[in-house]
Amino acid sequence: MSTSTRVRADACPGVFATHDAADGPLARVRLPGGAITKNQLSALTDAADDLGDGALHLTSRGNVQLRGVTRPGLASRLSAAGLLPSPSHERVRNILASPLSGVAQELAPALDRALCAVPELAELPGRFLFAFDGGRGDVSGEGADVCWRDGALLLDGADTGLRVTAEHAVEALISVARAFVRIRGAAWRVSELPDLEPLLHDIPGEKEEPRVFDTNPGLPIGSLSDAIGVAPVFGRLTAGQARAIAKAGDAVVTPWRSILVLGTLDEDAGLIVDPQAPSLGISACIGRPGCAKSLADVRADAARVGETPRVHFAGCARRCGKPAREHVDVLATEDGYLVDGAWVPVGDLARTLARKGSAEVKGQQ
């Protein structure tokens, strides 16, 4: 475990504390477990249309960001829609849950209620992340500080050997969070603590030999039983697409910038529904002109790339929004990109990534 700590202030954006981006204030709306009702989605879309840039930007934690929020009234709108149950805790309601697991989806709102009921947990860093994995291995590899995986308790992605029933899962995660607040010092994440044992005190459960669990991230794209998995390009959901989803029913926003739509979706909504679509493997930060730190319009450059391995385009060394799973790192420079550390001119990006994709396929055969 790293013992490094951070000395600068926690600047994770929320609704009340927005981030000053180049394209205006950025507000992040937490969706515990990714769940959002059709009425809440409609309210959020109207807010983006009326107060921001008109789009919903999905994040790698299953949340939604509104960009360019230059007009007032967002907090009151979200409160009325039930999206801000606790103003004091709004930035710490970071909870992932397996989209296709009924147990995980039930535990996420239960944890949210318990979290908001503990005053001292409002002091959690905005990057502290909870997760409930129903056993598929989909969210347990997404970098959660504490994760309940079908009975196993994980810290920083590693099995502790402690086994906790679903009935006591929320209690266990709250216990870990309270212990973290007490001992964290300047640490923001569990990975920054020198000793994790104090986090496990007073948690009832059976003890087993720790295991190494497989991970299987991602939401199946396309038709599922009574639902459909869809994805907007680069995680940017237009107002029209969001309204089409809301018309279909409730939804679950995933940490892979995709959406589980719990209903029948209009086929011409303009969303990715083909599991073989090349753009599914490409993610990118906002880039220019939305971010002043970005060295390139990474989304425009990424849109010109065809078949690729899983790849993330970043406009600067912060690499905002990079996926937790393995991917090709494409980092903008003043005059091109570093592809896994090797400089490539913009004109050669498509060929370079295509070759990497071919090599990856051969390596899997």
Radius of gyration, taken over Cα atoms and rounded to an integer in Å: 20 Å
Structural class: alpha+beta
Number of helices: 7
- Give the neighbour order of strands across the main sheet: 6-7-8-9-10-11
β-strand amount:
15-25%
Question: What share of residues is helical?
Answer: 10-25%
Q: How would the global form be characterised? A: globular
Total domain modules: 2
Total count of strands: 21
The largest sheet, given as strand count, sense and whether it forms a barrel, is: 6 strands, mixed
Rounded to the nearest angstrom, the distance between the terminal CA atoms is 35 Å
Series of H and E elements: EEEHEEHEHEEEEHEEEEHEEEHEEEEH
Q: What integer is the average pLDDT?
A: 93
- Catalogue the unreliable spans: 1-5
Domain Nitrite/Sulfite reductase ferredoxin-like: 27-70
Protein name: Precorrin-3B synthase
Pfam family, one: NIR_SIR_ferr
Keywords: 4Fe-4S, Heme, Iron, Iron-sulfur, Metal-binding, Oxidoreductase
